[in-house]
């Protein structure tokens, strides 16, 4: 009852005209930043921090949260329409969203994304409000062995389950892990795979890899098939709204994606990329089991689930930030710095010492989710009209925006060169039928797996048994074994039943 009273006070503060304006500005700015590849919400919040010192802390943090939420959805727009995710967390959305757009279902893909984002945000924020202490306990319970098990689970699930061909999936995963090794080893200081180039000491940015493989790779692949498809052909945007069948196919993925995404926002270094891949894999496996899979051709489930997982992660990432002072993303880390600039230290005492601010911030998350829905859903058919642009102009625009986005991130010409090199790799993967997802998950989770494995080995003084000593790790390995064994066993049983009959 006390929680409801505090939340009501938070709504009273957040619904003042001034704070509503800051929330609206944050959501709109975040959506705009999310659309542009390479910028990201972390950069937007970092640029805003010095400009907001004259504001009341409540208004400033409501705007930061709006940027955070808006940016996570904004990345889905270009992922669906142009196969160029504005955020790394939206890369999975492109796998099915872009084929939907090419087949004339862009408005449905955009609607599934924004409605999924709204549902996930509302559910996740509600759980944050009422179950923050439980989530904080989950955050502190993860050890090195658990993180390593989580990475292995994501590797195998993506390479062997999401990818249709296991050998090709593992090959793509190996490529991703190789890219992740480039640069200085953080623990030993060894220089790896830089070929004497000082510009590669920091490694290859995930922005470069994501935009290169998905955007530049797609452009090169389309150019290679230009003789068979006229360059001036346009893509019809299709009917403007989701049908009853689309709703029926989307509501379960929205809920499953939300359930998958919420724990990863709480886990330190969990990130929003892992649950989006896992959600995509789960929906693809379920569709294959039903025998009606459209995955690879534009399955709406492949947009609905990952986008819900993405935004559920965003909401719950505020739990370790506010309750422990522990950021789980780059944007959360910058918000932590902003708290400290205002003379506040996130942690267990923050809910007591700055109660008015915290509850107004939590209330603004509900309001921001509603604003996000209201300003994006009606514009889905309008966004989809971008696809009326002739393909030769459309893909030229993709190359320009991708190049500018990557260059803007670090003002580095080397990153632009790497962008096109990675794009050539993406083209070859498409040309010879290798899956893209394992490459991306290898780049994202490779450093995490390596670091946590070394930490676990150091703690146990080389005893491999430490990797299987945690209940969380054992559960993850158990789920992985089930996921690998059950589908082939069911397939074999069906084959025997068919032969017997």
Automatic annotation (TrEMBL):
Signal peptide: none
Residue intervals passing through the bilayer: 20-49, 61-82, 109-132, 138-160, 167-184, 204-223, 318-338, 358-380, 392-410, 416-445, 466-486
Pfam families: TctA
DUF112 domain location: 20-440
Keywords tagged on the record: Membrane, Transmembrane, Transmembrane helix
InterPro entries: DUF112_TM
Key word Nucleus present: no
Record keyword Membrane present: yes
Official protein name in the record: Putative tricarboxylic transport membrane protein
Gene source species: Prauserella rugosa
């Amino acid at each position: 009852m006390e929680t409801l009273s505090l939340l009501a006070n938070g709504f009273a503060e957040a619904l003042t005209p001034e704070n509503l304006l800051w929330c609206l500005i944050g959501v709109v700015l975040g959506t705009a930043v999310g659309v542009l590849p390479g910028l990201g919400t972390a950069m937007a919040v970092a640029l805003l921090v010095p400009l907001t010192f004259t504001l009341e802390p409540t208004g400033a943090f409501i705007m930061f949260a709006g940027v955070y939420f808006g940016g996570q959805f904004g990345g889905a727009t270009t992922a669906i329409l142009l196969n160029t995710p504005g955020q790394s967390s939206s890369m999975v959305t492109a796998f099915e969203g872009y084929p939907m757009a090419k087949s004339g279902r862009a408005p449905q893909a955009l609607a599934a994304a924004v409605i999924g984002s709204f549902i996930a945000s509302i559910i996740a924020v509600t759980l944050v409000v009422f179950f923050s202490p439980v989530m904080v306990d989950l955050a502190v319970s993860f050890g090195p062995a658990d993180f390593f098990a989580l990475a292995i689970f994501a590797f195998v699930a993506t390479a062997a389950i999401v990818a249709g061909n296991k050998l090709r999936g593992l090959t793509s995963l190996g490529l991703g892990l190789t890219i992740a090794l480039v640069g200085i080893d953080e623990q030993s200081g060894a220089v790896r795979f830089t070929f004497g180039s000082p510009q590669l000491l920091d490694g290859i940015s995930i922005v470069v890899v994501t935009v290169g493989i998905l955007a530049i790779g797609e452009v090169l692949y389309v150019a290679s098939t230009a003789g068979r498809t006229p360059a001036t052909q346009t893509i019809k945007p299709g009917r403007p709204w989701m049908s009853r069948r689309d709703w029926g196919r989307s509501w379960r993925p929205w809920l499953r994606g939300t359930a998958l995404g919420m724990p990863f926002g709480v886990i330190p270094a969990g990130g929003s990329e892992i649950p989006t891949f896992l959600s995509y894999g789960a929906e693809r496996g379920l569709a294959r089991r039903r025998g009606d899979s459209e995955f690879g051709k534009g399955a709406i489930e492949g947009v609905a689930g990952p986008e819900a997982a993405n935004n559920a992660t965003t909401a719950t990432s505020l739990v370790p930030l506010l309750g422990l002072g522990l950021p789980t993303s780059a944007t959360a880390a910058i918000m932590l710095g902003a708290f400290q600039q205002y003379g506040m230290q996130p942690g267990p005492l923050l809910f007591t010492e700055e109660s008015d601010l915290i509850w107004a911030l939590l209330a603004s998350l509900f309001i921001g989710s509603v604003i996000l829905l209201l300003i994006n859903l009606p514009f889905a058919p309008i966004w989809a009209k971008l696809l009326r642009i002739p393909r030769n102009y459309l893909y030229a625009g993709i190359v320009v925006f991708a190049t500018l986005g990557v260059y803007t991130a670090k003002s580095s010409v080397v990153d632009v060169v790497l962008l096109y090199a990675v794009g050539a790799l993406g083209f070859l993967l498409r040309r010879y039928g290798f899956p893209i997802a394992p490459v991306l998950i290898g780049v994202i989770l490779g450093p995490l797996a390596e670091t946590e494995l070394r930490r676990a080995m150091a703690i146990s003084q080389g005893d491999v048994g430490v990797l299987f000593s945690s209940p969380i790790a054992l559960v993850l390995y158990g789920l992985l074994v089930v996921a690998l064994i059950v589908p082939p066993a069911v397939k074999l049983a069906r084959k025997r039943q068919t032969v017997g009959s």
